[in-house]
Design goal:
Radius of gyration: 36 Å
Low-confidence stretches: none
Structural class: alpha+beta
Mean pLDDT: 87
Number of strands: 38
Shape: globular
Strand content: 15-25%
Number of helices: 33
Helix content: 25-40%
Length: 981
RNA sequence: GCUCGGAUGGUGGAAUUGGUAGACACGCAAGACUUAAAAUCUUGUGUCCAUUAGGACGUGCGGGUUCAAGUCCCGCUCCGAGUACCA
């Protein structure tokens, strides 16, 4: 009786769905375990084999935890707001909601292409998701709560005294009673006011001030504007100076935008990385991104004016080395301090800088540019005049947008000074700075008045002390992290629950969701407003009490920043999540997904989680306790060389002419071995092959001339190993009239290349094909077997037969021609040993998240049982349980056949029994007086005293002891047994 | 430039705390069954020497620690990832 995986898998898939086998219980007495995958964006292209890799691993773990008696939450959903659906809408006019639905549920798109549907593809692989909890970020019932969270953030400020976010009312109360003098907040409000002043202001004025305290705020800010996408982008959405999606250029633009004050959480985001179990590499990326640096801010007065330039420096110890200052071209003081005679030059420079894209600025690093403003600043300690320049190596968005330049200690300052012939002061004792700056921190300071003869560390401390004492500035910690731009000028995203009266934004006073209104076109308006400006007031489901609604939408990361909470209570219409449920489920125990979200999603969801914690809505501060980042599965493309010839005929009127018209015989495909060979050889070989194919008579007057060689990708399903299946390829490419030059062994070899999966390279492998051919269980085992989960690896189907063979073997072991064939006999010791070895190893490996090795362990076990011809029921029962996380369908089928009424999901993971493992030995190296003499094998489960006795009784030991009693015996299992004689 | 990973047979990889390197699988070779193919099964398979017995070498390179190093330490080479005027 054969292993009919299709039948089995369909049957159990249906059973699991109908019986809701994987439903998580909300108020269980069992311990909880939360296993989560990063939810996918449902694109029209569907899944390829790389997508399910992480899902299979998490599914294995979820099933394993269920077997261990945990109440497992293992949900799935869709991050369904996003660009591709919107781009498609712009092209076709189809509403993104329809595209999204088709991509998830399957169907056909507007061009008639068949869309498989994410859900259908996922279902085929046999995941144990609790689908009743599915979320879609573009569902109004979901984004209602995204909007709600936005409102909470809007109504909050960050209190530095309590080091947490608080509701804005506590701030207003302080303003009303004592003004802002004693308020310690994260804010960009730089004025102080009294309670009288506050109370005297009208609502609009008060709101303006409050805006600079809110955790999400509207402000004019320098943003990354992407003209091609027609929207602003956050820093993490830009890679190498171009947009991550589409690779379009990005420029700096001053725009009125919503931002999230994530910088308020910089320190906590940094510190709490120590509390989560993530890879060092991800933690490192986040640490770098947050970019903490400590130093001081110092004010420099501008000569004969009321203006002051504030700078941030990490090296206050080098303050006597300052010989000039540089402002960012966008710095607000530039216009005010520039002298009349420099005005034109400065204006020209500013204009040139503003036209440069981010990318140009980066690629221009070596070009040193700048312009003198004509103004001088006064050195706060020495009183010297220092020229003030502008230069685009200083960023407007970091620190204060201005630097004190210390050319002897900073290479960029040195280059700038060198280029413009500005003085370079040396303040480092015995260091040569004639060729380059000295940036090491091991120097001793000199020529620096009160800092003379101090090493860097002490000088820094003293300098900060003096700066603070003289009220020139203060010690300061600066973060590279910027506040996150929260507006997007797009349609397909969450609308803001915000309206405007004049220029002042207000939250909509409603508990209803603000739904995306229907619009006629998904493009910006003619006067450059976002697409939502096309909606009339009455198109919105909420009546606008002011002049207009907010036209921006929220960025992609809004919905994904809290989705893990919604799974706990996805249908709740009264709250974003029920308090009791979140108390029970807590944070995600195991999170699996790609490492590419390190500075985006993973940072933002930590931020929102901390905020919700501060507000008392959830009882934990970190969303994802343990995380594993699965590697990318690359495509394994195959290339062949297509050689072109021109054909000449000797004789006129020859039949060949007609023949040639019908069969343009100008191409030959050559096996990869021939690619390097001479084209003269190719001509000969091709001719020979044509003679073989068409006969000598026809070919005798034909001359071939080599023209060119083309490298051509061939579909991977016509290749096995390195060999091309020529018939398959001919069928696919209609190359029937071409000839194929094989190598000496008679094979046609291809060139292989590992690269990203893409349609144009014909190297995409969908999981569906493999499920149809080998079954879901085989696919699951094989994807795990491929190698360590975290590692990038090329896809290669060669090995899949081995994994498939193991499942067949298992099936055969317990079946004969008549069906199930199991014996009720008591298992032998050997059989039990094989089983218990497997239980132990599989359990240990899954527990340390090694998902590849258990597959090998199963194979060894089945091989051993086959050799023992073991078909004992008792062995099979346990084997099925431990196999079920990896190959749930076959396990469930056999489990039922053995007469079990309940799904194997509710079985208990067996405990291994050491008694069956005694024969497995430990090696004890035995040494005398510190020198190793021999290895002794003893059973693993021996007690320390027994080991000692066994070693003492050993023949070789006795020889070495020669009647003496050892003074000291040191026994450490698997470590050396040391005898001091 | 800075930060973090990685390098093991023909291939993917295993070796968990320093303890028989190469598990398991692919591929390859030989054999069995078959008219044949597929499927299945058996055997072999790191390199070199040797008919065998057996021996020598072997985890990117060079050193070190240790009775014992793929694993720990120092110095390099190459590959991958992140980041980049962050003052």
């Amino acid at each position: 009786m054969q292993y009919q995986f299709n039948e089995i898998e369909n049957k159990w898939r249906k059973y699991w769905a109908e019986n809701k086998t994987f439903a998580a219980e909300d108020n269980s007495v069992k311990p909880k375990y939360y296993v989560l995958d990063m939810f996918p964006y449902p694109s029209g292209a569907g899944l390829h084999v790389g997508h399910p890799l992480g899902y299979i691993a998490s599914d294995v773990f979820a099933r394993f935890k269920r077997l261990q008696g945990f109440n497992v939450l293992h949900p799935m959903g869709y991050d369904s707001f996003g660009l591709p659906a919107e781009q498609y809408a712009i092209q076709t006019g189809q509403h993104p909601a329809i595209t999204t639905k088709t991509n998830i549920e399957g169907g056909t798109d507007k061009d008639g292409n068949v869309i498989p549907g994410y859900r259908n593809q996922l279902d085929k692989i046999g995941f144990s998701f609790d689908w009743d909890r599915e979320v879609r970020t573009s569902d109004p019932n979901y984004y209602k709560w995204t909007q709600w969270i936005f409102k909470q953030i809007f109504n909050s400020w960050y209190n530095k005294e309590t080091d947490r976010a608080e509701v804005i009312d506590t701030l207003i109360e302080k303003f009303e009673t004592e003004g802002n003098v004693n308020v310690k907040a994260v804010t960009d409000c730089d004025m102080t006011f009294t309670a009288e002043q506050w109370n005297g202001w009208n609502e609009e004025e008060q709101r303006k001030v409050l805006m600079s305290y809110r955790l999400t705020f509207l402000s004019d800010t320098w943003v990354n504007w992407c003209p091609a996408l027609g929207t602003v982008l956050a820093n993490d959405e830009i890679k190498d100076g171009v947009s991550e999606r589409g690779g379009h250029p990005v420029e700096q633009k001053l725009m009125r935008q919503w931002s999230m004050r994530i910088t308020a959480y910089a320190e906590r985001l940094l510190k709490d990385l120590d509390t989560v179990d993530w890879t060092d590499s991800i933690k490192d990326i986040q640490r770098n991104w947050i970019g903490k640096s400590e130093g001081a801010s110092v004010e420099f007065k501008v000569e004969s004016s009321k203006f002051k330039v504030e700078v941030f420096t990490t090296r206050p110890d080098t303050i006597y080395g300052v010989s000039f200052m540089v402002l960012a071209p966008e710095h607000e003081l530039v216009n005010q301090i520039t002298t009349a005679e420099q005005k034109d030059k400065i204006e020209a420079y500013k204009k040139a800088a503003s036209l440069k894209s981010e990318r140009d600025r980066q690629s221009d690093i070596k070009n040193i540019t700048g312009e003198f403003t004509g103004a001088y600043a006064i050195h706060p300690f020495s009183g010297d005049k220092v020229p003030v320049w502008i230069g685009d190596y200083v960023l407007a968005s970091y620190g204060t947008g201005a630097v004190m330049a210390v050319p002897c200690g900073d290479q960029r300052d040195w280059d700038f000074a060198n280029h413009f012939n500005i003085e370079i002061k040396n303040i480092f004792k015995d260091k040569d700075i004639s060729e380059a700056a000295y940036a090491e921190k091991d120097a001793v300071i000199t020529n620096s008045d009160f800092l003379n003869d101090l090493p860097v560390k002490k000088a820094t401390k003293l300098a900060i002390y003096e700066i603070e004492r003289s009220r020139l500035g203060k010690g300061k910690t600066q973060y590279r992290l910027r506040d996150a731009v929260f507006s997007r000028q797009r349609y397909w995203g969450e609308p803001f629950p915000v309206y405007y009266k004049g220029d002042t934004p207000y939250l909509l006073d409603t508990d209803e969701v603000v739904e995306l209104p229907a619009i006629d076109k998904y493009l910006p308006t003619e006067d450059g407003e976002p697409p939502l400006a096309r909606a009339k007031k009455e198109d919105w489901n909420i009546a606008c009490p002011g002049d207009r609604m907010e036209y921006n939408t929220m960025p992609g990361w809004a919905g994904s920043s809290w989705y893990f909470l919604r799974y706990m209570d996805s249908k709740n219409i009264n709250e974003f999540v029920d308090v009791e449920k979140v108390k029970y489920w807590q944070n995600v125990d195991l999170y699996i997904g790609g490492a590419e979200h390190a500075t985006g999603h993973l940072l933002y969801s930590r931020f929102w989680t901390k905020f919700l914690y501060d507000m008392g809505y959830i009882p934990f501060e970190e969303p994802f306790q343990k995380m594993i980042n699965q590697g990318m599965i690359q495509g394994n493309s195959a290339y062949i060389a297509e050689v072109h010839f021109s054909i000449a005929f000797w004789r006129e009127g020859h039949d060949l002419e007609k023949f040639y018209d019908e069969n343009p015989l100008t191409t030959m495909y050559v096996a990869s071995e021939y690619i390097e060979s001479d084209f003269v050889d190719m001509e000969k070989e091709c001719h020979k092959l044509m003679v073989e194919k068409f006969g000598e008579e026809l070919m005798k007057d034909v001359e071939l001339t080599y023209a060119s060689t083309l490298r051509k990708a061939v579909p991977i399903d016509s290749v096995s190993g390195n060999k091309l299946n020529i018939e398959k390829y001919i069928k696919w490419s209609n190359a029937g009239s071409s000839v194929f030059l094989k190598n000496k062994n008679g094979d046609f070899t291809v060139e292989r290349e590992v690269e990203k999966m893409s349609k144009s390279k014909y190297n995409v492998q969908t999981p569906d094909e493999l499920v149809d051919k080998y079954g879901a269980d085989t696919l699951r085992c094989y994807e795990m077997f491929l190698g360590p989960l975290e590692q990038h690896k090329p896809w290669d189907t060669q090995g899949i037969t081995g994994v498939n063979g193991f499942l067949k073997k298992l099936w055969r072991l317990f079946h004969d021609d008549n069906g199930l064939n199991v014996s009720d006999e008591t298992p032998t010791k050997e059989e039990l040993k094989s089983l218990h070895k497997t239980i132990k190893k599989v359990k240990e490996d899954i527990e340390r998240f090694a998902f590849n090795t258990p597959v090998s362990t199963y194979m060894i076990c089945v091989n051993e049982l086959t050799a023992l011809k073991c078909n004992k029921k008792d062995i099979l029962q346990d084997l099925l349980i431990i196999l079920s996380p990896y190959a749930p369908h076959i396990a469930e089928e056999l489990w039922a056949k053995l007469g079990n009424k309940e799904s194997i999901t509710y079985a208990v993971f067996p405990k291994h029994n050491d008694a069956y493992l005694v024969e497995s030995n430990h090696k004890y190296p035995v040494s005398f007086n510190g020198k190793m003499r021999f290895m002794l094998e003893l059973p693993t489960n021996m007690k320390k005293e027994d080991v000692e006795a066994a070693v003492m009784a050993n023949e070789q030991t006795l020889k070495y002891l020669a009647g003496q009693t050892p003074k000291k015996v040191i026994v450490v299992p698997n470590k050396i047994v040391n005898f001091v004689v």
